[in-house]
Amino acid sequence: MKNKAPKLSITRINCIIVMLSVVLCCFVSGCGKKEGYVTKQFFAMDTWMEIQLPESCDDKDLELYFNDVEAIVRKLEACFSVTSTASDLYKLNNDINENVTLDSKELLDILKEGEYLEDLTDGAFCDKLYVISKEWGFTTGNYKVPDKAWLDAEILEIQDIMDDSNTDISVDINESSVIRPVGTCFDLGGIAKGYATDKIVDYLADKGINSAIVNLGGNIYAFGDKQGKEDRFVVGITDPFDNTLLGTVMVKDMAVVTSGNYERYFELDGERYHHIIDSTTGYPADNGLVSVTIISEDASYADGLSTALFVMGLDEAITFWENNRNSFDAILITENNEIYYTEGLLDNFVMTEKPYTCKLVK
Question: What does the pLDDT read at residue 229?
Fold first, then answer.
């Protein structure tokens, strides 16, 4: 009997909606105006992206800024792709030498950030899962459940790399080199959009822009002052169960990033398999959370932590926040319709009328 083909229920949902009319309501590359802002949308990194800049900017400057921002994303996309044979990451993943010299400062930077996040989260964030994600089909579209014995063997190798001090990954930015065990394959999908966001925000700040919304596939950065009466942006959080509005947070100079099990998945034999892989099992993380939103000044940090806390599960995620409370806030939604939000959001998080149990974490 032939194996039943997976039901492809892949959804690339924007898990965060910006209420200042910055929702991606029209997925067409081009520009338009929205409440004091000029908007450009384009498709990159396998998702739709939207940049909003104040309409008070000169038209020629706006064109330059939009083109430069898109160029930043395109350059990083070309560098970080796991499938393009021309990308720096592809060349690293397929290099037969243990010590590899890289031309890309950006790749060195993001690998360094990945190592930091892996150490900080005790492996809950892991950027070495490309081979496993590929086997599941999340990088190719050929979805299947991998053989358990194969998964166990691959995870054992990855865990050995992560746990053994003799096989540490070494990223030397000054020497432009990466030392890693041959065969280590990185996948930067858990941090790439956050890294790109930080680069865009740095660029806008250098150009003297004082207000902007950066939306890279649902990874939001509210930059500077909102144009109008309020000085903060209102960002909506999506209900992971029905994709309606769950609540809003008010932010300024902050990234708002969500990871959830409803964003990318496939179904097979009545089971749903999402794309957030637990580095200890090789299977999609199943620790009782359905959505994690991180609010932080650093978009790369927020991007990585949204994945890491999802993998940790509720109790470990709360403990992690307690130990790092000065660097981020979080909204954690469980499979039992419970919402946990950290005390930094006490005056900034507003729930809609939903049948959820809402708890403040202090």
Answer: 58
